[in-house]
Design brief:
mainly alpha, 209 residues, Four Helix Bundle (Hemerythrin (Met), subunit A), 6 helices, single chain
């Protein structure tokens, strides 16, 4: 197997980091929060930025599945991949949530977004402290499903926040139904996120004591 194929999983992981950054900057620009760009922001350019941000989020989310699958398939699991993969997940999720809140105040998004961010930073801190003491916190099956739920829920919220950018139906029944689905998915993802956070906390507590 050549070197390029061996490095493919890490290339995908790296591309997720780049796309996550692009997505966040595009959402911030669409919200008028980027200096200079906000001065020339038009309604059409705002809609284009929102679409590009969503497409970048979708592509980045897909790489989250394929980089790990390819690493196992090609027997190309590496230390860098193990380090960058969870970092890429957290940057993608946190960047999307912050971008969502930049687009405009939404009471149904702020609380679950804050809880998810709190959990992600807390678990990252636990891993860092544990690593310094030789304690490993392996990723659980529920935590993997947590990431999938987060990405699906955030994707739905991005569509909802950028509804006009996709030319979707403005019928109240359609928008109302999708709103319920998107918010419900986000709260389910938040609940699973908090459960996995509690599991990691308990595992770290037992290991460190």
């Amino acid at each position: 197997m050549n070197l390029a194929m061996k490095n493919l999983p890490n290339i995908l992981t790296g591309s997720r980091l780049v796309m996550a950054l692009f997505m966040f900057v595009a959402l911030a620009a669409a919200a008028g929060a980027v200096p200079y760009l906000s001065e020339t922001l038009t309604a059409d350019s705002q809609l284009r930025l929102e679409r590009w941000a969503f497409y970048a989020f979708v592509v980045a989310s897909v790489t989250d599945f394929f980089d790990g699958w390819l690493a196992r398939k090609l027997d190309a699991v590496s230390v860098w991949g193990a380090i960058l993969d969870p970092i890429g997940d957290k940057i993608l999720v946190c960047g999307a949530l912050l971008g969502l809140m930049a687009l405009g105040p939404n009471a149904m998004v702020v609380l679950p977004a804050g809880l998810i961010l709190f959990r992600e930073f807390t678990v990252s801190a636990l891993r860092e402290v544990g690593a310094g003491k030789g304690v490993k916190l392996p990723v659980t099956l529920l935590a993997k499903w947590k990431t999938t739920l987060q990405l699906v829920a955030i994707g739905a919220e991005l569509i909802l926040a950028s509804w006009g950018a996709f030319g979707l139906s403005l019928e109240p029944a359609v928008m109302g139904g999708f709103t319920v689905v998107a918010h419900s998915l986000l709260w389910i993802a938040t609940l699973v996120t908090l459960i996995t956070g509690a599991q990691y906390w308990e595992a770290a507590r037992k290991a460190l004591t």
